[in-house]
Amino acid sequence: MMTTTHDAPPSGHGPDDPETLALSALGWVLTDADRADRLMALTGLDPDVLRVSLTERETLAAVLEFLVNHEPDLVLAADALSRAPDELVAAYRSLSR
After folding, report:
1. Which of 70, 53, 43 is nearest to 19 (CA)?
2. Rounded (10°) CA dihedral 28, 30, 36, 42
3. Residue 12: band (very low, low, confident or very high) from pLDDT cuts 50, 70, 90
4. From the centroid of its chain, how far is CA 71?
């Protein structure tokens, strides 16, 4: 019998990687219609583009850039995700390289 261990999710992404943080932040943004509309307006993203590019670094960086550029939302998102705002900023920098 073969035994395997699963220290990380199958994708290789953990809860602290930039992609996961960006996806969590996007989920938070989309819980508020006004904030979601502002995201779409400021980033040029729309629901169809989000669906097809959800896992692309450029899209994930755009989501975090949206938060980084509006400190009140950055702080609220970080709090909702139980993260420090600096963690979201670092994830943005990592994805935007």
Report:
1. 53
2. 60
3. low
4. 15
